[in-house]
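Regression check, uridine-diphosphate-N-acetylglucosamine case 388:
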Amino acid sequence: MRSRILLVAGARPNYMKIAPIYWAIRENPSLPFTVDLVHTGQHYDEAMSGNFFRDLDLPEPSINLGVGSGSHALQTAKVMVAFEGVLLEKRPDIVVVVGDVNSTAACALVTSKMRLDGDARLGRPVLAHVEAGLRSRDRSMPEEVNRVVTDAVSDLLFTTCRDADENLLAEGIAREQIHFVGNPMIDSLRRCLAAAEQSGFLDRLGLDGSPFGLCTLHRPSNVDVPEVLEGLLETLAEIAVDMPLLLPLHPRTRRRIEQFGLEERIADVRRPMGRRPPRGVLGLEPLSYLEMLQALRAAQFVLTDSGGVQEETTALGVPCVTLRANTERPVTILQGTNVLAGLGRREILDGLQAARRKVAQGACIPALWDGRAGERIVAALAQPVGGQ
Ligand code: UD1
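Current build output:
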């Protein structure tokens, strides 16, 4: 008897985390699983969604809840209502949620309260959280609330690093529920690097073989306040005097730049640039996964407020400066190439030097970031289900 798994994704950083689980099941047909990919539709633009499924060789999700954008309450509520219908229709044995976006917490909450058939004997689906236990200890971040809530109601907690295990144990989660499996995002990275090199992205920008930096900014705390965003763009311009700085723009960030009248601070590559090779801070459309990987691997340094990029740069040995006051991924600082710099000009410039020194002195890749996390997750999922 095959067990039905729902693999849930909602927003851009989720796709790289579900893909290795999907691949591990697809490539081992003897496993007793049937999988449905569920997309909540939290992200919906082609550049924020469809492109990633193609780059990751994932099929179209069989279910798309189409929830779209909205306030936290509205978005979370729409996912919950729609996902309850999916659970009732599909009657899964296992639900897998990943990461820390609103869709993650919404689907976890619904699953944890589901009683299929209203029959207590049937119980509810096993709920698994991938990338459990990360903590920034900053409850002003919506993602931190999502992490805490999701972990509290999950049955199986798959962690990417040992400090996450410790965080969960300290919150009273039983040791048997915690599985240290490594980092599925790094599975995706390793699998897709060769294809990324063929993407032709840097060549199209006139940057193949020339030095450049890369920056990503999308946290509300960095882009929603005019003075903060303006200050960051000024520092980026200063850094970009030495070499061009690619700035792929999340829709939120582009909208804010326009709203705050900061367009002149970046060279928008949608407009004719008038000269080659490009210089300055280059505002780009959101990159596809393969384009991003090619840029990450070749960049001299990366500045970011993203969580996943901190991990990807550590895996690739590229200096990374995190433009935030805290991180839920301290392993990238303790072992990897990451430096936490905050938002001030001096802190960022010093952080850049420190990150470069770290790489020169030899950072290392955290345990089990080896490309096999997906296999370990699937092996663990086969255990409780097989035993039921
Ligand atoms: C979400 C996640 C964040 C993650 C980020 C990655 C939450 C609370 N936040 O933030 O953890 O790091 O995704 O990108 O879940 N928009 C579009 N097209 C889209 C999607 C969004 O234009 O396909 C615009 C909309 O104007 C929307 C805004 O971006 O209002 C924000 O989208 P939303 O999903 O609410 O949050 P993100 O900032 O993307």
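Comparison notes: The longest strand covers residues 3-9. The first helix runs from residue 12 to 26. No diff flagged against the previous build.
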